[in-house]
Amino acid sequence: MTGGEEATKGERTRKKLVDATAALLRRQGYHATGLSDIVAESGAPRGSLYFHFPGGKDELARAALLASSAEWRARIDAATRDAPDLGAAIDATVTLLADDLESSGWDNGCPVAAVALESTSELVRATVEEHFASWLDVVAGRLAASGVAPAPARQLATVVMSAFEGALLLARVKRSRAPLVAIGQALRAMIGAAPSATPSPVPAGPVRTTTRTGARGTSRRRSPR
Amino acid sequence: MTGGEEATKGERTRKKLVDATAALLRRQGYHATGLSDIVAESGAPRGSLYFHFPGGKDELARAALLASSAEWRARIDAATRDAPDLGAAIDATVTLLADDLESSGWDNGCPVAAVALESTSELVRATVEEHFASWLDVVAGRLAASGVAPAPARQLATVVMSAFEGALLLARVKRSRAPLVAIGQALRAMIGAAPSATPSPVPAGPVRTTTRTGARGTSRRRSPR
């Protein structure tokens, strides 16, 4: 890198490679994606691949998975920022993911899931693990910030992530939004019934209908949206 | 096939090929699995592969996915046959899947999911779709047989399948039973709240406090093993 201009061009090429890899990993997984596919999809010169990623495909896959993870965190943040409560945030996430999947001709599922289910190098496997661990933290944090007690929030975050991952898979296979809509409704009901961190009989915070002990009784009566 | 003995030997060879393919597809997906891996893992002579599967890898993959689907249906049926209620059936399924995943060194997830997330031929894709459609029918049928009204039973079956698929993925990535245990508990609570097919004085709605199916209240307190 000899100057600002050149650095910028290098960064643009690097980004093209990362974006192309992310798109291919998402659509078809790790093993189906060859370096020549990445070069073709990116439009970057082949030589630039080893210049930017001397570790080859695994290093590129790691960068692509991290970039997808960050991109989707930003997109979900933006879509849910103004949601008045957790139920609305879940609906907004369902809509975002279903729109994205449908508009791709049912090809674009979770950007990490396909790779997560293949046997890959330890570097790639650890990247996938890191991704899911950080997302679980984010979801649990969001639930806790909305008034769910910390321990149930972690448990509920695992359920939320599982439901979205599984529904994305089924929606892709069925070429239908229905699985995402179904888990969205189920999660809304479940979150309404989660134990609150607030030891008060007065409904508090975005998770309003729950009473202290939570997951039973009247809180279940809320209409599903 | 010229006689009983020969047919039996041929069938054994065919089964070896199908079993080896099923194991490899489950562990690593479609594209990572080469025909030579299948031949090596099966111990069958290479020539037998095209004799039994003139359509090659895709025909073999279809046979393997159908065999996995049938095998797991039988295993889950056997594990849940004596369950006194749906909650117990869910617990038994969680235990079966978690034991299988853990005992494989966290390599064996859903036998179909890895292939479902790759781009494959139309034959393989349609096989995956067929598998999930028939499992949704089975789960919805089981829920309906236990007293859940038909429309919510289909919706709930989609949620059950999504939760198990996603939890299997997370459990594999995290190398932990926790995601399966978490969704098991959530599904128990949800099924306890599903609208019953039996008319009742309580206002009907998708999320209601039914007592008919029984999977709630004290039954939640059981330890997750």
Q: Topology, pairings included?
A:
The structure is a homodimer of 225-residue chains.
Chain A: H1 4-28, H2 35-42, H3 46-52, H4 57-80, H5 86-103, H6 113-116, H7 122-145, H8 150-174, H9 178-192
Helix pairs in contact in A: 1-2, 1-4, 4-5, 4-7, 5-8, 5-9, 7-8, 8-9
Oligomer: homodimer
* Secondary structural class of chain A: mainly alpha
CATH H-level superfamily of chain A:
Tetracycline Repressor, domain 2
The CATH architecture assignment of chain A turns out to be Orthogonal Bundle
**CATH fold description of chain A:** Tetracycline Repressor, domain 2
Q: Summarize the main sheet of chain A.
A: none
- Biggest chain pair contact, residues each? A-B, 53 and 52 residues
Low-confidence stretches of chain A: 200-225
Instruction: Report strand % of chain A.
Output: under 5%
**Amount of helix of chain A:** 55-70%
**SS field, number of helical segments of chain A:** 9
Radius of gyration of chain A: 20 Å
What separation lies between the terminal Cα atoms of chain A?
A: 55 Å
Query: What is the number of independent domains of chain A?
Result: 1
Give the CA-based shape of chain A: elongated
State the order of secondary-structure elements of chain A, H for helix, E for strand.
HHHHHHHHH
Mean pLDDT across all amino acids of chain A: 85
The beta-strand count of chain A equals: 0
Q: CATH top level of chain A? A: Mainly Alpha
